[in-house]
């Protein structure tokens, strides 16, 4: 879910309690995470930004290789070699409850009325050129955007969701699209929402154009890096979609 403190609602310095799963800000004396650890005797926390583990209230870092599975689920990474073999080696993975799943073919949580967006996101996650581009974060990590531009958030969140959908080490056979959908609500100025049913075709058209623009493309003069990957002609806008 969105990485904000369950009490202060802040995105800054947020820790996940690995006992109950709730998010709290800070780990210093009198911080929300510290108080939670004392009141409920929950002692292991993960910094959601640095991916480091801490024991509270004693406040020391935990270094244990057995915790690497957790950090990988939070932030999966893919090598170029791994990406190149995704469609050649369809290998089933096993979730922690014993069920099996095929990476890339997993469910997205239906939070309220977001099934229209889920269908589009899952379809796009199985378009190989698009998938391969977003699985490798280095493709777009260094793209420069103007100060205050929020649209690049779509790129970041879509990349994160893509990597989680294709993660061969998921704990469960489904993934939450909550952060991705929060970015959609924000960047579309609430034209597409989680709580209100939307039109899938309209969402797809807006989303493709928004990604194209966020990655440096324009309607007339320039195509984005992603446009080059998908083979859109130079100087052309993203093709409009119609029902």
TrEMBL record:
Cellular compartment(s): Nucleus
Assigned keywords, A-Z: Hydrolase, Metal-binding, mRNA processing, mRNA splicing, Nucleus, Spliceosome, Ubl conjugation pathway, Zinc, Zinc-finger
Domain USP: 106-243
Claim: Ion transport is one of the keywords in the record: no
Stretch forming the signal peptide: none
Assigned GO CC terms: spliceosomal complex
Superkingdom of the source species: Eukaryota
Domain UBP-type: start-end pairs: 1-81
Keyword Transcription: no
PROSITE patterns from the UniProt entry: USP_3, ZF_UBP
EC number: 3.4.19.12
Record family assignment: Belongs to the peptidase C19 family.
PANTHER family: U4_U6.U5 TRI-SNRNP-ASSOCIATED PROTEIN 2, UBIQUITIN CARBOXYL-TERMINAL HYDROLASE
Identification of the protein by name: ubiquitinyl hydrolase 1
High-level lineage: Eukaryota, Metazoa, Chordata, Craniata, Vertebrata
Gene: Usp39_0
